[in-house]
Amino acid sequence: FRKLIQIVFGLSIAFAATSFFLTFFAFGGGALVQ
């Protein structure tokens, strides 16, 4: 059960980091283009 919690926790952190970096790079790329 603890292993399952660790997997879900890790996936949620990875998803949050991915979405954050995607938004950050999209914003930075738009700023650079303009």
Describe this structure in words.
The protein has 34 residues and is mostly helical. Helices cover 94% and strands 0% of the residues. It has one domain (1-29). The chain has 1 helix and no strands. It is rod-shaped. It starts with a helix and ends with a helix.
Which features characterize this protein?
34 residues; mainly alpha; 1 helix; 94% helix
Please render the helix and strand layout as text.
Layout: H1 2-33
Summarize the structure.
The chain has 34 residues and is mainly α. The protein has 1 helix and no strands.
Structural class based on helices, strands and sheet pairing: mainly alpha
- Give helix and strand order, one letter per element, not per position: H
The helix fraction, in percent, is over 70%
Q: Which band does the percent of strand residues land in?
A: under 5%
Unreliably modeled segments: none
Number of strands: 0
Radius of gyration: 15 Å
Give the overall silhouette.
rod-shaped
What kind of oligomer do you see? single chain
Mean pLDDT: 87
Number of helices: 1
**Largest sheet entry:** none
